[in-house]
């Protein structure tokens, strides 16, 4: 019996390997782009949730200690500070706006939201903006309830 292709070996051509590598590179680029956007969204979500937590802590301290407590904001430096806590810096790519009672505004860049021993507050809101998304944290003046509206468009 005569074998027509004695040394024929299976395998891929160079062109086939290059095409597959290009396809993998394109898919990796698409995945990386999607992950970057997800990381940005998760960063502002984390900042918002930390701020809500700091506000709730401040309200809780006012109720437990039976005295007024304030959470202070500096919109120029993009910082806030709850009672007996370290100053928290908001990332540079996130803008912050604070609306509060006139009595709580120290100057153009600093202000605070005050919580009273019965749980009520001076009220107001904090708006965190990143690109075209807004996270708004509301503080009800009568009840002191803190709520967040997440990710609404401009």
Describe this structure in words.
The protein is α+β, with helices and mostly antiparallel strands. A hairpin with a 6-residue loop joins strand 7 and strand 8.
Total count of domains: 1
- What is the rounded Rg? 27 Å
Largest sheet: 4 strands, antiparallel
Q: At the fourth CATH level, what is the homologous superfamily? A: minor pseudopilin epsh domain
How many E-type strands?
8
- How are the strands ordered across the major sheet? 3-2-1-5
Could you tell me the strand content as a percent range?
25-35%
CATH class: Alpha Beta
End-to-end span in angstroms?
Answer: 79 Å
Q: Could you give the order of the helices and strands?
A: HEEEEEEEE
Second CATH tier, the architecture? 3-Layer(bab) Sandwich
User: What general outline do the C-alpha atoms trace?
Assistant: elongated
**Secondary-structure-derived class:** alpha+beta
Helix content: 25-40%
Low-pLDDT stretches: none
How many helices does DSSP assign?
Answer: 1
Report the mean per-residue pLDDT as an integer: 89
Keywords:
154 residues, four-stranded antiparallel beta sheet, 1 helix, 29% strand, single chain, minor pseudopilin epsh fold, 8 strands, alpha+beta
Layout of helices and strands:
Layout (H helix, E strand, L loop, with lengths): L13 H52 L3 E6 L4 E3 L6 E2 L5 E6 L9 E6 L8 E7 L2 E7 L6 E8 L1
Antiparallel strand pairs: 1-2, 1-5, 2-3, 4-6, 6-7, 7-8
């Amino acid at each position: 019996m005569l074998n027509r292709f004695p040394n024929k070996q299976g395998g891929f051509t160079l062109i086939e390997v290059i095409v597959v590598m290009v396809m993998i590179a394109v898919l990796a680029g698409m995945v990386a782009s999607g992950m970057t956007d997800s990381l940005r969204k998760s960063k502002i979500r984390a900042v918002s949730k930390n701020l809500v937590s700091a506000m709730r802590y401040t309200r809780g301290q006012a109720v437990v200690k039976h005295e007024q407590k304030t959470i202070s904001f500096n919109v120029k430096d993009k910082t806030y500070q709850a009672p007996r806590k370290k100053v928290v810096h908001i990332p540079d790519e996130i803008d912050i706006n604070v609306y509060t009672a006139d009595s709580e505004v120290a100057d153009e860049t600093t202000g605070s939201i005050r919580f009273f021993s019965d749980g009520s507050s001076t009220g107001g809101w904090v708006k965190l903006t990143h690109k075209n998304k807004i996270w708004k944290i509301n503080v009800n003046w009568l009840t002191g309830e803190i709520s967040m509206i997440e990710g609404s468009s401009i």
